[in-house]
Amino acid sequence: MIVICICSDTKLYYNIIAYKSRGGVNYIDNPNLPIKISPIFDMLIAHHIGDGTVVNPKRNRKPYFGYRQFDRKYMQLYTKKMESVFGRIQNKNPYKDKTRTYSPTSVSNLFFETYGLSTRNFLSKSARIPNNILKKNSKHLLAFLLGIIIDDGHVDSTEIVIGLHNRNLTKDLQKVCDLLGYKTTYTEKTKEDGSEYGFLHILKNGLLKLWKDYSQLLVQYPEIDLGYKAEQIQQGLEISKRKIKRTPGNDKVILDLFATKSCTVNEIAKEIKMTRQGVRYHITKLLEQGKIKHVGTVGENNFVYATIWSTNYLKEIFSNI
Using an 8 Å Cβ cutoff, are 106 and 3 in contact? Predict the structure, then answer.
C-alpha cells in the first residue's frame, strides 16, 4: 500500500507507511518524517551537482535526479545518505547498470524546492552553491565540501585538488574553505582544446584542519565517510611528518625498485612510504641524470617509469627472438 499525504500535523506522520509522486515508479518505504534538512541533506545536494544528472521526463512529469558512481563503496554510502534523510528507497532501476541510481520524484522535488533551485542549478557549467547553504554553520559547509571531494576531488599527498570546468563553482568552493578556515590556493588552466578549468588546492595546513573537522563530524554522521580518499589523506599526513623528501639516499631506494619492475609515482610512494611530491622530486632528478625514462602511461597522466638499463636490456632480448 502506498499513501500520499501532504500535511502539517506531525501526528499524521506516524500513519504514513510509504509515499511517492503521481506517475512515479520509485518510492519511499518506512519514511523518516518529518524530513530534516541536516548536513547530510546538503551533502546530497553536492553529490547531485558533482556526479548527478537531472532527468526531464515527458508527459508533464517533474524532473528527478540520477546519480552515477563507479566505486561500489561510494555508491553504498550515497544510498545510506539518502535513506538516513528520507527512509528506505524502493528503486526500480530499469537499467542493469549498477553504477547508476535514481531518486524518487517526490524526493528530487524537495531538493529543488528547499533552496528555490531549478535544473540549471545542477548543470555542470552553470551550477553554483546555493546562497542559503553558504550561510549555514560549519557542519553543513563541511558536509557539502566533502560531497564534492568524493565526486571531483583528487588527493595528492598532503593536498586535495578539485578541478572543475565550472570556474565559478570552484571559486564558491574556495569561499567555503575560507569560511571553514582551510588554507587554499586557486589557479586556472586552459587545455589544448580551449576548455578552461579552475583548480582549488586545499593545502597541507588546511588539510590538517579539514581532517580534524572531518573526524569529529564522522562520529555524528558516519555516512560522510570519505572511503579510500580518507585513507589517502591519512597516509599523506603521516608520511609528511618524516621529512625525508629530499634525502639523497632515496634516489638509490627508487632505483632499486626499478631494477625489478617498472613503476608509477603512486606505486613508489606507497611502497617506500614517501609523499608523491617527494617521489616526483627524485624522479625529476633521475630523469635529468638519464638513469630512468618514461616508458608508458596508465590511466590519465599516470606515467610509468623504468631504468635505462632495464629498457635497453628488454629491447636486446626481444630483438634476438
Answer: no
**Which residue ranges form the domains of the chain, and what is each CATH number?**
1-124 (no CATH), 128-241 (3.10.28.10), 249-319 (1.10.10.10)
**Beta carbons within 10 angstroms of residue 175's beta carbon:** 13
Quick check: helix, strand or coil at residue 218? helix
pLDDT per position as a tens digit, 132-191:
999 999 999 999 999 999 999 999 878 999 999 999 999 999 999 999 999 999 999 887
Q: How far apart are CA 304 and CA 298, in angstroms?
A: 7
Torsion (CA) 91, 94, 95, 98 in degrees, nearest 10: 10
Q: The whole model's pTM is what?
A: 0.73
CA distance 257 to 307: 9
Give residue-wise pLDDT tens across range 4-40. 444 444 555 556 666 566 656 666 777 767 788 999 9
The answer for 129, left when phi > 0, alpha when psi is -120 to 50, beta otherwise, is beta
136, HSE (Cβ side, Cα atoms, 13 Å): 21
**Residue type, position 223, single letter:** E
Q: State how far the Cα of 181 lies from the Cα of 141, in Å rounded to an integer.
A: 11
DSSP class of residue 61 equals: P
H, E, C per residue of 115-165? CCCCHHHHCCCCCCCCHHHHCCCHHHHHHHHHHHHHHHEEEECCEEEEEEC
Tell me, what DSSP letter sits at residue 84? Answer: H
CA gap 78, 72 in Å, rounded = 10
Q: Which of 212, 246, 33 is nearest to 138 (CA)?
A: 212
